[in-house]
Specification:
It is found in: Membrane. The protein is of the alpha+beta class and 446 residues long. It contains 13 helices and 8 strands. It has a 6-stranded antiparallel beta sheet, with helices on both faces. The protein has a two-stranded antiparallel ribbon with strand order 7-8. Strand 3 and strand 4 form a beta hairpin. Helix 4 packs antiparallel against helix 7, helix 7 runs parallel beside helix 12 and helix 8 runs antiparallel to helix 12. About 21% of the residues have low confidence.
């Protein structure tokens, strides 16, 4: 029989347990991801950040690039097991077998998602790259024939096993004895066309969507900018100036975004190691073949220890495994893919550069016109100032006659007054004409 104290402690424990579990659940935030697999199947899945990290092998700092609450520039990151894509509104994680899209319900991302699903579904029936079929390798056949081991520097080993192995274009190929069942690891062995790996097809869709979006915005800006600039040159008004100001602000923003995408592609093309990191399918195939070769090597160690030449054979095997661990794929196909979209994004940047030059030329033309108007106003000010000075001379004459001094002119006939007045006016006009003539002759006035 429990004491009252024990019952109270058990009651408190049961009450505290749901609260703690609820706190843990509250601290774990799950996001909805669209998963597009290499088999063409698409589905939504709610997973947390730590699950994504375990699933893709990405660190937390790479997942921050995909956070919609944070603003990161366009980035393409190649990691050991995944590729992180952050191009404009397109955010995705690409692995060797699937694509994870975090913001699939965004209206801006909907065309990209449809294009990705259709592209993967259309290529599902095509022959895949090397590692797409390595999961179907018959391990029993490989155990019976060590021909899938890495090629040894000694030709005698090929004679012992009667098999051959080669490494071409960063992919592994092996020849099995007749009757054994294993798919080829190099689809180019018979001269057929190689299909891009799944990660490159997904990367191509991302690049195509980003370039298409930027190209569309550039064309829209061009259609609005050129008529507005032409109208501003014909009529300078506050409304036209405001329109051109907004267009120039959009032009600067789009140019910066396009420049960042271009710089990212250029950085990838300049770094062979970064491009090699993006060969996820080949790395997966290389890893699987290495594991199978290691298992075969362990199985044959018992029978090989009785031979006198086993030490040399084991040394050669270890060196071949080390060469297998150094993965150096042929990056030509990825380089061609990136170069194609680099040329496209560079063309978009050239269009924006030409538009910016047109805006600058229009601004120069407007400034010239404003300077001309300002010069005309200055000339008018000079002419008015000259007229004021000449008029002041006439005022001086009037002031002299206005003094309370007795002279004979005051008692002269009335026509003398008009002669004096007209003479003063004519004298002022002559002085004004002489001043303007001197200004034009000296080049001060036009």
């Amino acid at each position: 029989m429990r004491s009252p104290k024990q019952g109270m402690e058990d009651d408190l424990h049961h009450r505290a347990t749901p609260t703690a579990s609820a706190g843990r659940r509250k601290g774990t935030v799950n996001r909805e991801w669209l998963v597009v697999s290499d088999s063409g199947r698409s589905y939504h899945e709610e997973v947390g950040k730590h699950s994504i990290m375990r699933r893709t092998g990405l660190p937390a700092r790479d997942l921050r690039v995909l956070d919609p609450l944070l603003s990161y520039p366009s980035t393409i990151l190649g990691r050991e097991r995944a590729i992180v894509i952050n191009l404009e509104h397109i955010k995705a994680i690409i692995t060797a077998t699937e694509v994870l899209v975090p913001n699939s319900k965004d209206p801006l991302v909907a065309p990209f998602v449809q294009d990705l699903q259709s592209r993967v579904a259309s290529s599902f029936g095509a022959p895949q790259h090397e590692a797409a079929e390595t999961s179907d390798l018959d391990e029993e056949a490989i155990r019976k024939s060590p021909s899938c081991w890495p090629s040894f520097p000694s030709q005698g080993m090929a004679a012992i096993h009667g098999t051959d192995i080669s490494k071409q274009n960063g992919s592994l190929t092996c020849d099995l004895p007749e009757g054994s069942h294993s798919p080829e690891l190099d689809v180019n062995g018979d001269g057929s066309t190689k299909v891009l790996p799944f990660e490159f097809r997904a990367l191509e869709v991302c690049l195509e969507s980003a370039c298409r979006c930027l190209e569309s915005e550039t064309l829209t800006l061009e259609q609005e900018a050129y008529p507005a600039l032409d109208e501003l040159t014909s009529k300078i008004s506050t409304l036209n100036l405001e329109r051109v100001r907004q267009i120039k602000s959009r032009l600067v923003a789009i140019s910066g975004r396009v420049q960042k995408v271009r710089d990212e592609l250029e950085h990838l093309l300049d770094d062979d190691m970064d491009m090699a990191e993006m060969y996820l399918t080949d790395k997966l195939a290389n890893q699987r073949v290495g594991e199978i070769s290691s298992r075969v090597n362990l199985d044959n160690d018992a029978s090989e220890q009785e031979d006198d030449g086993d030490d040399e054979f084991r040394v050669e095997t270890d060196s071949s495994h080390e060469s297998l661990g150094v993965f150096k794929p042929n990056i030509e196909e990825l380089e061609m893919l990136l170069e194609a979209y680099f040329v496209q994004i560079d063309g978009t940047l050239n269009k924006l550069s030409h538009l910016r030059e047109y805006v600058d030329d229009t601004e120069d033309y407007i400034n010239i016109m404003l300077d001309e108007k300002q010069n005309q106003l200055l000339q008018m000010g000079v002419m008015l100032s000259t007229a004021t000075v000449v008029t002041t001379a006439g005022v001086v004459v009037v002031g002299l006659f206005g003094m309370n001094i007795g002279i004979d002119l005051y008692s002269a006939p009335y026509r003398k007054f008009w002669e004096t007045t007209l003479g003063t006016i004519i004298g002022c006009v002559i002085l004004y004409v002489l001043a303007i003539g001197f200004g034009k002759k000296s080049g001060l006035l036009q």
